[in-house]
Design a protein that fits this description.
The complex is a heterotrimer. Chain A is mainly alpha-helical. Chain A has helices spanning about 1-20, 30-45, 50-65, 70-80, 85-100, 110-120, 125-150, 160-175, 180-190, 195-210, 215-225, 230-245, 250-265, 270-275, 295-300. Chain C has two domains: about 1-75, no CATH class; about 85-215, Immunoglobulin-like. Classes of the chains: A mainly alpha, B mainly alpha, C alpha+beta.
């Protein structure tokens, strides 16, 4: 099966490569105005009142002026309209995004949530509620991340701090307490880790909680792991391990205690490679691919 | 919109979840013999085995939402059976002191319905099994009586294949010693 | 350090597990013939197992099923399930339903068989000198579906932009070039049912009560 995918992948890869290189590399401005044009046309053609149309377009202009990419503005408007969302809600989405951006907060997550909610058919007021709260969490997250960096966790340039702010915001969204998050920062600093590790650690706590662990269980486990010098990759492997264990219908408490005792025994890191399921469905490492079934000699005596 | 369900069993489970509990009887009929046999080999007593097996089906039904499509219903069910039996054995041990090797006495008279040709070896085997530690017993039962492969046993018991093999090896050795002690020759 | 006896014993078990290679089995036979003690040991174990394997399988007692059915608890309408349950049941998102059935949970189910190969199959490919791009292959086993696409952070959750193709074995597949990073996604079946990939490496809440699958693309 893998061979087949390999062939297809390579074939597609070639076409993808050709396509990517052939596509005219339009400047951001050009591509942007194309999208915006589409959005404008959609708005004009809609059956909204004149005021409603004007309202949306005004909000769109303000959003772009604040620096929100035209494509996102366009997607939100066109998707909202085709979903039959009321104009005030569409204006609301753009408003929240704009205000978030104007506060110099990372905008990617807010836009993604809005687009996602619209795509999935979530009721408009629910989308607004979620994105509004998210925006507030982002505002709370920024000083937290700055504190973590000030206390000695290396920041890298580029958008890494933004990533961390968004990750912390998502953790706050899941009601993970601020001190658990700050404690993670301390643990990372003690290990001389960077903001990238901090980002991964907080994300892993959030993922664990999202998958059924209590905040305590999740935070403790990740703090222990970081304290033991686990890398980003190790934490990701822990997530995969948890997912695989849960797939076998074990209770989360069982999985948690299993993982903790493995960490205790120093088995977790090494075992990650063993337990990680790769193609062929082998379980438990290289020795398990046996012929299965009944033993040769014993069976033959029947 | 109707996405039809892939396998018969999944269809049945789906219907049960939607409230048509009568469908569950089909699953019970299909797996009752195996569930009962695993239970019997684990606890060594026909009546208790029946209870264990029935209760397992009832538990499975009660938590049907937790069953994961894409896995085998039978594996999930057998896990419940094995766990219930082990809980029972543990509870029994806590209340009564038993020797390492139990008295070699037929454990229970079989009722007429359950009477099968009573081969002497059959009883002895069960007695030997009764004397194995729970963790060896379940692997031996699943591997050599139900003839499942290690991968499936791993799914059922939630233990890695390597650990299972170690237990199987030790279980077999113990079994051999026990049978020798009891003077059983096959 | 194991002595010969222990090694031989290991070999016996290996054979009984079905793990021994043919040449090892031959070796075993030769040794057994030659060594009386070993032969006895092997015979004993194999004999014990033989007894097990040929022991009766008793039928379940009569009225077994009827008794079970009588004792089944009444099924309640599933409200407020545990978070984990969302994962492995493909379900139409509540808000997607235009009809009155929207209030009841689980309208349509996709049963995706656990395809034992890793679902997001990642391959390295340098497409151009400037950008490193990795080809990610995603699969969904849904033989009864008529249309499957994938929506995610890489395409702004457009439900019709990345369409999978159906293979003979009922597995739908697509390969997407992605820059390194983390992406959330869900499959969309027949334009309406949003399905969480049961074989994802990990999961992330979407903020609206659903679980997105996560794929981490690395060079």
């Amino acid at each position: 099966m893998t061979k087949g995918f390999l062939k297809i992948s390579i074939a597609l890869l070639m076409t993808a490569a050709a396509a990517l290189m052939a596509a005219p590399y339009a400047s951001a401005g050009e591509a942007g105005s194309k999208h915006l044009e589409e959005a404008r046309v959609t708005v004009q053609r809609s059956s909204l009142s004149k005021e409603a149309k004007a309202g949306i377009l005004a909000k769109a202009d303000r959003a772009m002026a604040a620096g929100i990419p035209a494509e996102d503005v366009s997607v939100i408007i066109t998707r909202g309209l085709s979903n039959g969302v009321e104009s005030r809600h569409i204006e609301g989405f753009l408003e929240i995004a704009t205000r978030t951006k104007e506060q110099n907060l990372p905008i990617r997550l807010v836009l993604d949530r809005t687009e996602q909610g619209l795509a999935k058919g979530v009721p408009a007021d629910k989308i607004s509620g979620v994105t509004q709260r998210l925006s507030e969490h982002l505002a709370a997250a920024r000083p937290m991340v700055e504190k973590v960096e000030n206390r000695g966790v290396q920041s890298t340039h580029g958008g890494r701090s933004d990533d961390a702010v968004e990750t912390v915001a998502r953790a706050l969204e899941k009601s993970i307490p601020a001190d658990a998050i700050m404690r993670t920062g301390e643990k990372v600093r003690d290990q001389k880790g960077s903001i990238v590790l901090f980002n991964r650690a907080v994300d892993t706590i959030t993922t664990f909680v999202g998958n059924g662990m209590t905040t305590d269980q999740a935070a403790k486990m990740v703090h222990t792991a970081v304290g033991k010098g686990y890398s980003e990759h190790d934490l990701e492997a822990m997530e995969r391990y948890m997912v695989n264990e849960r797939r076998q219908n074990r209770s989360m408490d069982d999985v948690v205690s299993g993982m903790n005792s493995r960490m205790e025994r120093g088995e977790m890191m090494h075992d990650m490679q063993m337990q990680d399921r790769t193609g062929g469905g082998s379980m438990g490492g290289p020795n398990s691919g046996s012929m299965g079934g009944m033993g040769g000699m014993g069976g033959g005596r029947r | 919109m109707n996405i039809s369900i892939e396998t018969e069993e999944h269809k049945i489970i789906q219907l049960c979840l939607e409230g048509d509990s009568e469908q569950y009887a089909l699953l019970v009929d299909k797996y009752k013999a195996m569930a009962y046999n695993i239970a019997y080999r684990m606890v060594g007593d026909a009546d208790i085995a029946k209870d264990m097996a029935q209760e397992s089906f009832i538990s499975a039904y009660a938590s049907l939402e937790r069953f994961e499509y894409g896995s085998k219903f039978s594996s999930w069910l057998y896990r419940i059976v094995v766990n219930k039996c082990k809980d029972h054995l543990r509870a029994e041990r806590d209340t009564v002191q038993v020797d390492e090797i139990r008295d070699i006495v037929p454990s229970k008279e079989r009722t007429p319905e359950q009477a099968v040709s009573s081969r002497q070896t059959g009883d002895v085997i069960q007695q030997a099994l009764n004397s194995l530690p729970d963790d060896y017993r379940d692997v031996i039962v699943l591997k050599h009586i139900e003839e499942l492969d290690y991968r499936e046993i791993s799914d059922i018991l939630g233990v890695s294949v390597n650990a299972l093999k170690v237990r199987a090896h030790r279980g077999r050795e113990m079994l051999r010693e026990l049978l020798e002690k009891m003077g059983a020759r096959v | 350090m194991k002595n010969t006896k222990e090694l031989n014993r290991d070999l016996i078990h290996k054979i009984l597990d079905g793990d021994a290679a043919p040449d090892e089995q031959l070796k075993m036979i030769a040794q057994v013939q030659a060594d009386a003690d070993l032969k006895k040991e092997f015979d004993d174990i194999a004999g014990a197992l033989h007894s097990l394997e040929t022991s009766e399988r008793m039928p379940a007692p009569p009225f077994f099923t009827a008794e079970v059915m009588r004792r089944l608890p009444p099924k309640k309408a599933p409200i407020g399930r545990r978070v984990w349950n969302f994962l492995f049941k493909g379900r139409a998102l509540k808000w997607n339903m235009a009809t009155a059935f929207a209030a009841t949970v689980i309208l349509a189910l996709i049963f995706t068989q656990v395809v034992r190969t890793r679902n997001a199959h990642v391959e390295i490919a340098a497409v151009s000198q400037q950008e490193q791009v990795v080809t990610v292959t995603m699969n969904l086993h849904a033989p009864e579906a008529h249309h499957v696409s994938v929506a995610g952070t890489f395409n702004k959750w457009k439900a019709d932009a990345n369409v999978l193709t159906k293979q003979e074995n009922g597995i739908w597949t697509i390969s997407i070039p992605l820059k390194p990073g983390e992406y959330n996604y869900m499959f969309v079946v027949d334009g309406k049912a949003w399905i969480t990939d049961p074989n994802a490496e990990t999961y992330s809440d979407d903020g609206f009560g659903n679980k997105n699958a996560v794929v981490r693309v690395k060079i």
